[in-house]
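Case study 2.
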Amino acid sequence: MTFSIAARCTESEEVGVIIASSSICVASRCAFVRTDVGAALTQNVTDPSLGPAVLDAMEQGNGAVNALAKVISTAHQSRWRQLLAIGRTGAGAIFSGEKMLGIHAEAYGKDCVAAGNLLSNESVPGAMVSRFEQASGPLAEKLLTALEAALDAGGEMGPVRSAGLLVAGRATWPHVDLRVDWSEQPVKALRAHWQVYVLQLEDYLTRANDPDAAPAYGVPGNL
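Prediction:
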């Protein structure tokens, strides 16, 4: 009940993921990024512990392919899981167990991997990869464009209710972490959140790194 893409930007060295689902709060369970390591997604019948486990394996020096294989080899009920991973360098990786729900598919592209389950058709991940490769701008913008392409291609078989976007690489924490947990149009709402947040992103990074140089918040009491 999910479609997603994990990707990197070789210029900025950012890594990121974007995901949408008919389930509530999808990003809270399924999306994971780590600065200087990579990005991972755990979906289908989800085990949220697998995302951090994949990133741990990558941080220990494994590429995405080997990290995914290592985690799957010991994962509980792996036949129900769908996992995606990509590091700052090297090939991306996808695992889809034999118990995938409904129509499911995978796609590999330049600096990205995409997959989904309970899809309206098998072309959805490929549409995400194609649009990502054609897009320009920062990684977050390219990921949003890819998610919008998934909807254009048919998206999930049922109505989409939640979506999330995470990007890491400019701080020790994800410097982009936007979520729409329950909405009639979560992808449209996520786009709106990004359009507001991107105008303030540099200010928040300055507040963390150099508070003396940080601008005021522009709210009562701190104008």
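The chain has seven helices and ten strands.
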